Amino acid sequence: MKSARPPRVKVTTKAPTGITGFDEITGGGLPRGRTTLVVGGPGSGKTILALQFLVHGAQDCKEPGIFVAFEENARRIVSNAESFGWKLAKLQPKKLYFVDAQPMPDLVQSGDFDLGGLLAALEAKTKEIGARRIVFDALDVMLALLPDPAAERREIYRLHQWLLAHELTGIITLKSGGDEPNASSQQPFGFMQYMVDCALILNHSMVLGVSHRSLRVQKYRGSSFDENDSPFLIGNGGIEVAATHTLARKEIKVNYERISSGVERLDTMLGGGYYRGASVLITGFSGTAKTTLSGAFAEAACRRGERTMFVCFDSNSTEVIRNLASVGIRLDRYVKSGCLRMISARTITGSAETYLVRIKALAKEHGARCVVIDPVSAWSKSGNELTTQSVADRLVDWSKSDGTTLVCTSLLDEMSGRVEGGSQLQISALVDTWIHLSYLMQAGERNRGLSIIKSRGSAHSNQLRELILSDAGVTLADTYTAGGEVLMGTLRWEKERAETAAHENADAAAKLKRVRLDAEEAELEVRLKSLQVELVAKQVEKELLVRTTASSKGELSRGRTQIKELRGADAAIPKRKVSPP
Amino acid sequence: MNRSVMHKFRLYVAGDALNSTQALANLTAFCHAHLPDRHEIEIVDVYKEPQRALADGIFMTPTLVKLAPSPIRSIVGTLSQTQTVLQALGLEDLAA
């Protein structure tokens, strides 16, 4: 049949699905104009994936679609989809058309049949709405009615040919038998997997009692793809695939900007604060003030006016706000202003993957530049260690590629005895800065100590500091290293007091000595003065003495001369002593 | 059974596909044998009237619908097993 399809612009070879993460692992979406097979067990998300593909096409790509429902009633599918916020009512029937193709339950069958009627109907509809995308949901229901495997093959082949001839981007979903992962290799599905250009396998399994969904691209003709199992979850907006940026990974722009940790002295210890976009891990036992330290960071971020998200796993967000207020960290005003978003996520259900995807979605929604996760170790409780580790990987990877500064706390198990040990998530190897908080038991008291285990790309202090919490906030104090022992708390206080006292004593003594010396000096000066005065007096006295002596001598000789003159006896003698004094 | 009741059939076929032509042949033969002069057969080619197939919800071809006498019954396939066909259409006594 000649068809007059609307003119089609061949832009790309891939049809984006709009599924977060999926377009990344496939390098752009599903093969355009080709058929993709989606195989999965019950409740593995096949229908949602297929429907999301159609909705995205109709809503954002100007590619109308047709949904052929073999199993579920179209009305039910539509109402289920409402929960994802997809506005199907607006798209129907012009951009998205549902075909109810469920076989009647009382269908009587006699002899062979084919899908000619369906394809003819679809052909008419495709032409009418200009459909570019089509989904055959649960084709196995229809195939099961065919009398023999040969007929099944023939109909699959017919369908495939029809799709190719119309260059429709198609998804065919099939149930895989039960829980057996290998069931998909059974006929006729195996045949289909060889025939189609792209095949996806959806898995839904339980790992240690925690639901775990994953998706794998089994084949993709003519394209590279992420071959690993990618965990995914069904969130509020449909399917979200957790993709690691392995393909075409962008180099992250390195940032030299420093941002405050919220504790002044800690910034100094770190050489100026955390790097923007860095991942920071704060480890410690319960009660070592991990939350407080991360709260200080959040407050500092809000004070700078940066949108921040605080995720608490172990306690309620209102409790966290109250508790932090007691140490002078006031977060409530930032919550009110909308700058800070608190999220309580108690670790009851859900896999680590679920949390990661939710946190990512929420952070994106909030536009957060700083994210606090308290504690990240809560994740290791759910699911097996391997998956949670890869989640931690992706968490750090995400924050880096996003330029988000991430502060995670991690609870260390006191019983495990790993005092300085790595956290269970092995996140310590990935993070840029690792701050360890510890207790020091000494002289009947417990004190909090803070040390920086590592801080990439910056010089950092090697000193253990005492972390002090008070109404005024978080402060760090020097510890005393005396005789190979670190002193904290009361001992430090005593030592400090003793030292201050000694200092004061020395001060006073010096002052006293100075005063004494001053007095002595003054005394000497006074004495010097009096002596000088005395000296002057003596000199005057001496002069006087000399003068009196001379005058008296003169008087005497003059007298004698006069006497001689008077006597007039010895005339020769007075010639020697004529001069008067 | 009232021998004068008219039997109305509608057969949806997909052009001249093999199983569709088989079904038509089987139906015609069957009517000639069991319902001579008491039957009407309407043939709908889904390729020519795809909108009708869509509206009627006919996705498998060939599909035979018995419109009268009521109840309406439908049967899918080449109609090769006469006994099944008779049962499905509520015409078991004709075979006797």
Structural description of this entry:
The complex is a heterodimer of chains A (581) and B (96). With 581 residues, chain A is an alpha/beta fold. Chain A has helices at 22-25, 46-60, 74-82, 88-91, 116-129, 139-143, 149-165, 189-195, 264-269, 290-303, 317-325, 332-337, 352-366, 385-402, 489-567; strands at 14-15, 30-31, 35-40, 65-69, 96-100, 108-109, 133-137, 169-175, 198-207, 210-220, 230-235, 238-241, 258-259, 274-275, 279-284, 308-312, 340-344, 370-374, 405-411, 433-442, 445-455, 465-470, 473-478, 480-482, 485-487. In chain A, strand 20 (433-442) and strand 21 (445-455) form a beta hairpin. Chain B has 96 residues and is of the alpha+beta class. In chain B, 36% of the residues lie in helices and 25% in strands. Chain B contains four helices and four strands. Chain B has helices at 18-34, 50-56, 82-88, 92-95; strands at residues 7-13, 39-45, 63-68, 73-76. In chain B, strand 3 (63-68) and strand 4 (73-76) form a beta hairpin. The radius of gyration of chain B is 13 Å and the shape is globular. The relative contact order of chain B is 0.24. The model of chain B has no long low-confidence stretch (mean pLDDT 82). Strand 6 (108-109) of chain A pairs parallel with strand 4 of chain B, so a sheet runs across the interface.
